[in-house]
Write a structure and sequence with these properties.
Layout lengths: L2 E10 L10 E11 L4 E5 L6 H9 L6 E6 L2 E2 L10 E4 L11 H10 L9 H14 L15 H13 L5 E5 L7 H18 L2 E6 L2 H7 L2 E6 L2 E6 L1 H6 L4 H6 L6 E8 L2 E4 L2 E5 L6 E5 L11 E5 L4 E7 L4 E3 L5 E11 L2 E7 L8 E6 L10 E6 L4 E5 L5 E2 L7
The structure holds adenosine-5'-diphosphate (ADP) and magnesium ion.
């Protein structure tokens, strides 16, 4: 089932009486979730992920905007009429019921023409239990299960009616590291097997990147970027997205574009193609006939920028242009982790990941790097939007 969010906005009145402005938990969210895909809704705590999910489920009503499931406008429908399955972080199982009774629960509440016979209910419950592989646990109470098993029961309960849309709100956050990994692979498998359109909410970028067909990165109620996880990682639209994705995170420096070169501090780290550096300019909608378009404008010589370099973007090179103080070298099997420092870096530590073909002597006071242009992003210092450039091949 395709899910379409149209200008979805949710405001809460501010509880702090001194502040009269509303809290805008979700701000003009427009997105089409394709049928049968797993979407990772990703962002820091408080950015509006749960609110978005609750609007889709119908647990909350939007202040404005619309939600469509396929062609049907479901904005006014209560949760039970939307055909959704919900899974929460804390499992929310009924403690006094057995696993089987928990899974049967949504079926027992069906009324009228949807009412099922006992035999049909048993069959559906057995099928859901098999899907999440908890057939042997059917007679236990939730208190007699591990966290991972409880979450499987919650997923089975959400799937038993074969929902059109499955909504998962931080389903792995209460599990330990190993179970988290295992359960996220399970969720991916179940989603593939059932083909149910699934929205998976998490604050953990690695989790979202690893299982999603598509990610939606949110910050402060606003959608920052959407796309295939690898594409978003390789092509962040702004500094927030660049920083939010990736471990270790991207390294950010103060830089300048001048004389057709990119400078980090006083060092020219990359030659740029003449006239290749341009930044997006947001035209006013009125000026372009109601459509807002991005038009590139060249940046002027001497413009200050943020330079973000992925950890894998550094190549140790004794003649390299970027000089950093070396503070640590750690061999991690396949890779070497090099920790260094540079006065133009925003953070005290620069973390780079180097392949073992390269040698870095831990006793050296300095390490010099050349940079891989594809792993270097420039951002406008004011808007923090991406500035595109082409490096000159030498
Ligand atoms: P997330 O799930 O990404 O952590 P939420 O959707 O829960 O974020 O919250 C988004 C914002 O809306 C936060 O600033 C939160 O404090 C606020 N918020 C959430 N629910 C309410 C509520 N019922 N009343 C007032 N503010 C709320
Ligand atoms: Mg939340």
């Amino acid at each position: 089932m395709e899910v379409i969010l149209q200008n979805l906005t949710k405001r809460y009145p501010n509880r702090n009486k001194k502040i009269h402005e509303d809290i805008i938990a979700v701000n003009d969210f427009t997105f089409e979730i394709p049928d049968g895909k797993l979407i990772g809704l990703l962002g820091p705590s408080g950015c509006g992920k749960s609110t978005t999910l609750n609007l889709i489920s119908g647990l909350q009503k939007p202040t404005s905007g619309k939600i469509f499931f396929g062609k049907d406008d479901v904005t006014g429908l209560p949760p039970e009429s939307r055909g959704i399955g919900l899974v929460f972080q804390n499992y929310a199982l009924y403690p006094h019921l057995t696993v089987k009774q928990n899974i049967l629960f949504p079926l027992e509440n069906l009324k009228g023409k949807d009412k099922l016979s006992k035999a049909e209910m048993q069959k559906k419950a057995a099928k859901a239990a098999k899907l999440v592989q908890i057939q042997e646990l059917m007679d236990r109470k939730p208190g007699e299960l591990s966290g991972g098993q409880q979450q499987r029961v919650a997923i089975a309960r959400a799937l038993v009616k074969m929902p059109k849309v499955l909504l998962l709100d931080e389903p792995l956050s209460n599990l330990d590291a190993r179970l988290r990994l295992q359960t996220r692979e399970e969720i991916r498998r179940i989603q593939r097997e059932t083909g149910i359109t699934t929205i998976f909410v998490t604050h953990d970028q690695e989790e979202a990147m690893s299982i999603s067909d598509m990610i939606v990165v949110m910050n402060a109620g606003v959608v920052m970027q959407t796309g295939n996880p690898q594409e978003v990682y390789d092509n962040p639209a702004n500094l927030f997205v660049a920083r939010f994705l990736g471990t270790p995170p991207v390294n950010v420096f103060h830089g300048t574009v001048k004389n057709q070169s990119l400078y980090i501090g006083e060092e020219a780290v990359m030659k740029l193609m003449p006239d290749s550096v341009s930044k997006p300019v947001q035209n006013s909608p009125e000026a372009s006939g109601g459509v807002s378009v991005h038009k590139a404008s060249r940046i002027s010589d001497g413009t200050e920028v943020y330079v973000a370099v992925r950890p894998e973007g550094f190549i140790p090179d004794e003649n390299g242009p970027l000089t950093c103080r070396l503070s640590g070298v750690e061999v991690m099997g396949r890779d070497i982790s090099v920790v260094s420092a540079n006065s133009a870096s925003l953070a005290p530590k620069i973390r780079s990941i180097i392949s073992t073909e390269h040698k870095v002597n831990p006793a050296d006071p300095f390490v010099r790097f050349s940079l891989r242009p594809g792993k270097v992003f420039l951002f406008d210092k004011e808007t923090q939007e991406r500035i595109r450039f082409q490096a000159l091949e030498l």
